[in-house]
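Might you be able to consider the sequence and fold that I enclose below?
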Amino acid sequence: MAALAFVTAAPLLVGTASAQLQLGPPSAPARTPKLRRPAAKPPVHGKKSVPEQAAAAPTKPPSTAASSGAPDLAFGAFQRGYYITAFESATQDAARGNAKSMTLLGELYANGLGVPRDDKKAEEWYKLAAARGDADAMFALAMFRMEGRDGPRDRQKSAQWLAAAAKLGHPIAAYDLALLYIEGELFPQDFARAAQLLGIAAQAGNPQAQYALGTLYKQGRGVPKDMHEAVRLFALAALGDQVDAEVEYAIALFNGDGIDRNQKLAATLFHKAALAGNPIAQDRLAIILANGFGVPADPVEAAKWHLVSKAAGETDLALDDFVNRLDAKTRAAAEKAAKPWIDAIQKTVAARTHEVSSVTSPPATK
């Protein structure tokens, strides 16, 4: 699924004193996480769209065997990499009506673990589990239809399975469904419904959902504008190593927006996100280090991070001037420190360019 960008357009304003420096917001994508086994959360209450109402997946309660509380030997073997043992145990449990074991069999067939990969058998097991109310199986079926496995791609059907899983509290399904409402192509754009769905995933501890919901609170889209709630969600997502949230939280800390100002902690968060390769964090960290806001000034590190962020596409004329005013020795040290980063960026860009050109270029004629 394509990632959606939560764009904020406020400019970067650089003042002459610490109290006047305002670090502008980033423009960063929310990324779709992979399938997990999250704990169920209460379903969203509110009006459902017509596409969601059309999600007719059966929701029978799991069988006694599925909810008995007995040790899940099949899943334990799966987690340890004993896939043949997992397959044998799951097959026995599935015969007794265990929906989770049916889903596990679907996973084994879908990924070719312990058995030959077989999308048809995987989908059959997923459907059996979904008929018994297993939300993970519903989410897997949504991904099958989204990816066009064992049949044509079908975003409408995928959305229906996402809605069925989200109704049962599946946080990743709720997150993906929220993105569809934000995107506004398959469904009419509905930020209020997106916020409700993101709330399911955010409460389950999903960092991507916490970040995305925080962005909606920051902008007042689908929910009342509330910077305090936005910052709280950014902080939670940052604890989950969501880099975009780290940047947002650091900006709020630096500016004292929705939270008490703490420029030292902001610098720490910018540094963490900068090391993760975020060019916005690299640019903001350069500003802090150039001016000594919350941390000692360090012209070499400031220039290094500016050069790295600039190579990644960030523009900052004030930092350009700062670097141009440095003496030759300091600038050379910064350029040397930035070189490995810039080389890696250029290598990545070249690889992506080659990948795109190999897909779009017509085959050579003989």
User: Anything to note?
Assistant: The chain has 17 helices and two strands. The longest strand covers residues 4-6. Residues 1-20, 27-51, 53-71 have pLDDT under 50 and may be disordered.
